[in-house]
Specification:
The protein is an alpha/beta fold and 180 residues long. The chain folds into two domains: 106 residues, no CATH class; 60 residues, no CATH class. It has six helices and four strands; from the N terminus they run αβαβαβααβα. A four-stranded parallel β-sheet has the order 1-2-3-4, covered by helices on one side. Strand 2, helix 3 and strand 3 form a beta-alpha-beta unit. 31% of the residues are buried.
Length: 180
């Protein structure tokens, strides 16, 4: 929806997106649903209302909590963005592109009331990039100024997030360091 000018403050649009959220999560195939998604990634989060994002997550988690799954298990909220028990976990990951880890920590904090969320650790990713270019030579400095130092349980780095390191000579290092 790049360059879409959507005003989520408009009641009709807001309610339509919240109904769509229920439909995506409910898993009610007989009603045209897609079988239930396991979570959401909120992209470009700094470009639209945090309040609306929390409403979407709140509605999704409420729907997930009340939906039956194949194994019948759904439990909610341990604060890190994931459903806490069972094989079917509902997660929320937020992409808020900022080097300012304090801002990212505030984003994490803003989602605590709706069960928590993971947030991409942009500074940590750039620290890996600097390592691959020889700017960082001490692995003890890898987490400097990163979200992992502020909210370790909510800091996210994925293989796709580090994919631009693929041309770097040390690209396997992020995956090795983050595996432990």
């Amino acid at each position: 929806m790049m360059f879409a000018d959507l005003d989520y403050g408009q009641g009709d649009l807001r309610e339509d997106v919240l109904r769509w959220t229920e439909w995506m999560v409910s898993g009610e195939k007989e009603e045209g649903g897609i079988g239930g998604v396991g979570g959401f990634r909120l992209d470009a989060a700094k470009h639209y209302s945090r309040g609306f994002q929390r409403d979407v997550v709140r509605r999704a988690r409420s729907t997930a909590k009340n939906s039956k799954t194949q194994d019948g298990e759904r439990t909610m909220g341990n604060g890190d963005g994931w459903v806490s028990e069972g094989r079917n976990r509902f997660w929320t990951i937020i992409e808020y592109w900022s080097w300012n880890s304090e801002k990212l920590a505030k984003t994490v904090d803003a989602f605590e009331e709706v069960g928590g969320a993971g947030v991409f650790d942009v500074q940590l990713m750039y620290n890996f990039f600097d390592l691959s270019n020889g700017k960082v030579r001490d692995l003890r400095e890898m987490s400097a100024n990163s979200l992992v130092n502020l909210r370790a349980g909510n800091a996210v780095v994925s293989s796709s997030f580090t994919s631009f390191l693929s041309l770097a000579p040390f690209s396997p290092i992020p995956h090795c360091l983050l595996s432990f």
